[in-house]
# Entry
Amino acid sequence: MGNREDLLAGARRCLFDKGYARTTVRDIATAAGVSMAAIGYHFGTKEALLTEALAEATREWGTDLEHALTQLPDETDPWQRFADRWDAVLATLAAHRGVWSATFDALAHPEARARLAENLDEARSGLARLFDGVAETDTGAARSLGTLYQALLTGVAAQYLIDPESAPTGSDLAEALRRITDPTR
# Structure
C-alpha cells in the first residue's frame, strides 16, 4: 500500500477505536506508520481524512447490507419480508458497529456532517432499491420510501448502539407498522 491507502486504513482504525472527535493527527500517523505531514499532503486536513475513511467504511457496510438482503428468500408475505429485511439490517449493524459509532460521533463535526448530507439522497434511493426494488428513475417513490427507511435505519442503529439486547427486531418493527396501518389489531 502507498501512504494514501495506509493513512485511510490508519484513520479507519482510529475512528473505530477512538472515535471521530478524539482521534488526533499523531494517532493516525502512528497507526498508518507514516509522517504526520503525509496527512496534509494527501488529504489537506485530519477532518478530511477521517471523513473519507468514514465514507469508505460506510460504502463497505452498504455492500455488505446489499449482499445480506439479496441472500434472503423471496418471501411473499409483505410483513415477513419486511421483518426479514430488518433482521438482516441488524446483523450488519452488529458486524459494522464501529462504522455506526463513528458516524454518530462525526455528526457533531461540520465537515463530516456536510459530507453525509451530500450522500443522503443517494443513500435514500439505495435503501428504497434494496428494500422494495424501487428504480432510481422513480424519484418520487425513491425519495418517500428511502426517507422512511433512512429514518428507521438511523433510529434502529442508535438503539442498537445504546443497548443491542433491546434494539427492535424486524418482527418488532413489522408489528408496529401493522398496528399503525390497522389500529383495530
